[in-house]
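Whether sequence alone determines local backbone shape is best considered at the level of individual chains. For completeness, the protein is quoted in full, as a sequence line and a line of structure tokens:
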Amino acid sequence: MSYPDAGHLAQSYSLTTRLINNFITGITDAAACATPLSSVNSLNWVLGHILTSRQQVARALGGEDFMPEAASVRYMTGSDPVTPESSTMIPLSTLQEFLQASQESLADALATAAPEDLAQVIETRFGPRPVGQHVAGLHWHETFHVGQLEILREFALAAEE
């Protein structure tokens, strides 16, 4: 096995959920859409992107979707930047509700995931992978973006001053 077991994956997602909640608490929608450079995504976009990846995890684990498909598509890699004027901007409070729903979905799916479930090979954008390897890889991707959220939080707070 080249990936963590379901218990460790559940623990990892629980930890990053707590971190994300800490980083988005007290941020306004306008500040969440601010960017330090035109080439850098906003806190709102990064959070939505994390949720899009979590939707992939939920699906790989046989869990339920927790956000509408249109919302998921809005935050996929390569999608347009999110600004306060964006007609497709999803408020931070709604993204936070999706985050909570995602955590519940992932916790439930991982609580019942047997080793053979994680060993099942599925097709991913990187080719065939065991579910456990796919989920662990998407969690690594999440941790990368959680680090960005910490920095974007500081920028958002400074933008509000």
